[in-house]
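Task: complex structure prediction.
Instruction: return structure tokens for all chains below.
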Amino acid sequence: MDKKPSVWSSNRFWRRSATWVTGVSAVLLIFLTMDSMSQMTMGTAKDIENKVAKRIPSPVVINYKIDYQLNRKRGHEVPIIGGMDANGNSKYEEKEKFFGRDDYSEKEASELIHKGKLTIQAKNCMDCHTLLGNGAYYAPDLTKAWLDPTWNTLAAAYGGKEYAIAAFLQNPPAMAMHERKMPNLGITKDEAKAVVAYLKFMAAIDTNGFPRNFGKIKGAVDARK
Amino acid sequence: MQGSRLYEGQKLALKYFFVAVVLFGAQLLFGLLAAIQFLYPDFLFGVLDFSINRIVHINALVVWLLYAMIGAVYWLLPDEAGIEVVGVKLANLAFYILTAAVAVVVLVYLFIQVGPGKESTIWFITEGREYIEAPRWADIGIVAVVLVFLYNVYATVMKGKHTGILVVLMADLIALAGLYLAGMFYTDNIAIDQFWWWWVVHLWVEATWEVYVAAVGGYILIKTLNANRKVVEMWLWIEVAMMFGSGILGLGHHYFWIGTPEYWWEIGALFSALEPVPLVGLFVHVLYDWGKERGKGNTIKNVPAFAWLTVETFGNFLGAGVWGFMHTLPQINLYTHGTQWPAAHGHLAFFGAYVAIMISAIYLGIQGKAGLKELKMTKAGWWAITLITVGVLLMTVALTISAYVQTMVERGMYGATWEGFFVAQADVWFTQGMGWRLFSGLMVIAGYGFLVYDLLTCDKKQPAEVYEEEAAAATA
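Output:
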């Protein structure tokens, strides 16, 4: 007469299941996080000398030419630092002047990156723009802003695109590109330089191919003209 | 003396609910300003720029939900445990400290806005990190207040009854509070910055907050339908297993493009695709209990609370589940990441998963404060739930249409450049979506007006039989 209740309707069974599932998931997450952290630590100047690819490279990448090209093996675009070899990998050779210099030491470059990141947070950039695709959707994504074709057209007039971007940041309404203007946030000359350094550094971060086809199919609608 | 029936903890809950509703209004107001700026960019330019309006919009959202969540716990805690909240005086003090701190943070957002690129800005003005912009001093204050809250909960449950709902809440709240610490450090490495930032944001809204909702939802079912506690608690454990089982590793769907290893593609895709499953469960559970109790001829003890709970389960499934799933796979997310897609998803998900259930909990508080055995839906309450729900659904559809246009034009056709961004933003289909978003936002604000009116007056506007039953019970 007294039927044993099914385990499927037992609170004790489900409580134990919940505890186990949560515990196992949390342990896996911690393990994966530790592995990710080891792969995501910022590279060093030594890594660049030894041509060791890092997902987040050393700040001294600001001394090098940065590009973003399709890597056939990985099937998407990857940052190219200092020129590309035949296999589509970075050569870490070709330099590029940044505010007139291409010999920033690791310490100098790190200080620029530090100030740049602080300024990006202090001006709430992420509440209009996206960085690495995260943030607000009122203004363009900045992940590869350093490589944006817009700056190539302005570079000549300012003696280099870093100067053009820095001028823009110090008084954005004066160089407005669209009716949706960026406000003047009181960015100083030093802060502007540091932010530009950060944008260049960020363009060298390996984002697994985001954004796709960056700047490749401009005007695709009129491509056949 | 109506108030004397309440525990001191419940009186404190009402204070939390009050501030929550005020901040909800601030959220809507600043959302409206930002929505106007999408269409008329010169509106308040240089005075209250989009970034500032958006900060207040999303921070007010997070803070009012946390207020309502803390309030709901103080409401149900003495009721479930069967004793007064332990350390309630300290809890009251913490409430006033937190509220003063929130006021200061908001005033600094509005009037100081930005600072120089130095550590001092991070400490005193803004951290500039979406959702958790609050400066570091406020972070530390929040942690202190939360510790008081945890002490209240733990000490009360230890002394009183240990119900399943309380056990789940105890475990969940400690995780929720601990995760906040992951967002309290500075690093120059933006990839690592965002990695830990998602620990806070994702593991809150897609794991610990969801479990919180399941627990409080269970309590509301018991209160509004007299649902069987054993069944409710069994469902609760199943939901905890499914939510943490999918949500914890579902974190991976934020790790596709931020400098993270590729293995997160597979992990994030698989587990985040499972995230809607418990939300379907929650939905089915509520409808099942509703049908069962109605079949027995039982009345709903608090109609507005139950109606909002139903909106919650439906909106959670649709907004968090369906709209989230639509762009969670990396193959699609590569093109939708950083567009209006997450905005469309975010609006319906936050509303469906959290706003609706917190309004439901507030209605329980209103009923308890008035000491009514039953609370029926009033005209104003009906208008509030209809305008807000339809408004948010319409907003989501409008943003989704804009998102499609942005994805196709900016990402598909132009390869994500600045030019592509602005071409897409100027596309007539995009701006139409933004126009409908503004219209639907006004609907939500009208609904908010009805909601506030109803919360203040619904206990006095009940049909005659509610008071008659009350009087009969009193004389019996």
